[in-house]
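Forgive a beginner's question, but might I ask you for the amino acids of a protein and the tokens describing how it folds?
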Amino acid sequence: MPSLLEVLNRAGEDDLLRCCGSARWARELRAQRPFRSLGEVEEVSAAVLATLDWPEVVPLLEQVARVRQRWPDLGRGELIYEQRFGHPFVLRAESMSRAAVLAQLRHRSGNDRATERATAIAELAGVVAVRLRGLVL
């Protein structure tokens, strides 16, 4: 059975698009192969995501599960955030408690637009990293 690194080094564009819906991200990630470590894959992925224009990022944020799907009682706060910033609240929350997610939602709701966009992209990179680690061809 191939290692995850071997899988990522030979993954096709369609495989990568399951992890992140940006064709540009998938092409640029493939162009920088072969990777020597999973950490390198995640670093390159995050760097490419950071180069995307905001209109390219918003649809990717839409592809991330909403916090309210896991904690319905946080839905109101999430909707207020979305109204304030105009995009979904994205958080790599798979191992976070409800209280930790709520604290992040409250903290990030106080950010200015530029800070929050950068934070959302960084969180998206974390979500994509989890998806990459789950890639099976």
